[in-house]
Every structure is written in structure tokens, then in C-alpha cells.
Amino acid sequence: RMRKLEQEGEERFDKRAREIVAYAVQKVGVSQAQEITTTTVPLPSEDLKGKIIGKEGRNIRALERAAGVEIIVDEVPEAVVISGFDPLRRQVARVALERLIKDGRIHPARVEEQVEKAQQEIDSQIKEAGEAVVYELGIVGLDPKLLQILGRLKFRTSYGQNVLLHSLEVAYLASGLAAELGANVTLAKKAGLFHDIGKALDHQVEGSHVEIGMRILEKFGVEKEVVDAMKSHHEDYPYESVEAILIQVADAISASRPGARKDTLENYLKRIGELENLAASFPGVEKVYAIQAGREVRVFVKPQELDDLAAQLLAREIANRIEQDLRCPGE
């Protein structure tokens, strides 16, 4: 009889847990679409492709160098394809290219000018994205610089899932679960929103996205309870509150929805990032862009530090390091 009562109790608890999760999920309506690694820019006419390429390819090379992307002109009729693993760079290139097409004056100096203006415009969009998310969630009193970092997640993907939308979804799910369980709703909401904040800078700063996120939140004076609640969502740290468990649950729910993520894309992006970081680690290197799915790495060096012979030796060293340190598909 005791065993039967115990079994019935477990079934009731399991049913109630499912009801709570289902109720929290039903309250969330964040749209989501997988990100890809190309952006298509339509052209008014096919003739414009010649102007975009320029004499001896000068214009297209200037755009690729300034924006850090690959421009493909012969793949789609009356359109140009921008290819690159970094959505932020692709967006900058798209805005710059659309302005150049509209203006009609396309030459290397003009290209660089428009890329710089596009970068400023995207920075403004990043700021607005961060402000819009916290306004939607009703969170106040945050440092504007923190919102700028948060907004960068609009142009960051994880397994093909947009990280800003994922963070918004986790905030809603975690706060919904907290409301059902009588936990701290505000704490769950903030920790859910910031649980992946480290991914905004993980291409630039050493450490896991959890560690980077903790440092960011501590730097901008976010409450210790929020930091403690977000740092356990990958079990890197022990749970210190009920809200910490809810963040992990909400994160798992958001990530596990059918079609939300795509492992192969994340592995590809990781490999491209490793290629760029490896090449950038050599002295005298100014910029590095991996293009053509990582089959080509463009390295720009500081001319005042490296002459032509040194650049050739550097290219050989980088190629050797890539062969030694990185695994390529098919190996």
C-alpha cells in the first residue's frame, strides 16, 4: 500500500510539473527562425554587377576588405550574395552595398566611406535592440553600456538560433515558471535575459560565455543574485537558488524546440572562428577574415612591421599552424 501511495504521489507531482511548464510555454510567443551564413542583396539590373566589381576587381576587393565578407556576384541573377560567418559583418556589408547601389557612385574610397557609415548605423541598431528588449520586459535601472552589449546578441547565433530572441524567450519562460512556483519573478526574468550575455563578446575575450557573462554583469553593477542565478545554466557552478534551476530549465526548453537550433551550423561557425583567431595570434597581423567556408583565409598585415618576404614567411607559418592545430572536415 505504501508503494502504491508513493507511486500515485510521484505521478501527481509529475503531472503538476508538466502543467506548470506547459502553462509557462503557452504564455511565450517569441518568433524564431534559423540564421544562415549568406545575405542576398537584390539589384535593379544585371548591369550593376560590373560597377560593383569595378576595374580589375578594385571595388569588390575594397568592399570585401573593409567589411570582412565575401561578395559573390555570379550565383544569383540580378542579385549579389554576401557570404560570411559573422552576421554583424554581413549586415554592415548589406547596408553599405545597398547605399552604394542607390547612390550609383562606386569606387574604393566611396566603398570605405559607406562601410564606415554602415557600421555607425548598425551600432545605433544594436543600442536600440538592447533598449527595446529591456523595455518589453519592464526592466529598468541598467547601464546604457550594458544595453549596448546586450543588443549585440541581435547579430549573434547559437546553433543557428538568434541569441537575443533566445534570451528574451528564456526571460519570459523563467519568469512564468517563477510565478507558478512562487519564486522571485523579477530575479528569474533578469537572470534569464542575461544568461547568455557573454556570447556578445566571446569572439573577443578569453573564457567561456558563462565566465565572460559573469564578468560583464559584475562590471556594470548587476545584483549578485542575478549573477548567481545565471551562472549555473550549464552546470559550471552549483545551484544557489530556485531561480538558478529555473534558468536552466527555461534555457533547455527554448533550445530544444523543434527547428530552434542546428548543430552543424554551430560547428561550422566555431571552426571559422578558430581559423581567424589562430591567424590573428601572429605578430604583425592587422585583420583576418576566413571566407569560402574556411577554405581561404585572408590575412592583412601591418606594412610598417612586415615586408613582402616576411609576409610570405608568415603565410607559410600560418598554413602550418592551421594544419597542425585545427581539424578539417573529412579528417
TrEMBL record:
The keyword NAD does not apply. Residues 163-256 form the HD domain. GO terms for biological process: mRNA catabolic process. It comes from Candidatus Wildermuthbacteria bacterium RIFCSPLOWO2_02_FULL_47_9c. GO terms for cellular component: membrane. InterPro entries: HD/PDEase_dom, HD_domain, HDIG_dom, KH_dom, KH_dom_type_1, KH_dom_type_1_sf, Ribonuclease_Y. Keywords: Endonuclease, Hydrolase, Nuclease, RNA-binding. The lineage of its organism: Bacteria, Candidatus Wildermuthiibacteriota. HAMAP family: RNase_Y. Its EC number is 3.1.-.-. One of its GO terms (molecular function) is RNA endonuclease activity. This is Ribonuclease Y. Pfam families: HD (PF01966), KH_1 (PF00013). CDD domains: HDc, KH-I_RNaseY.
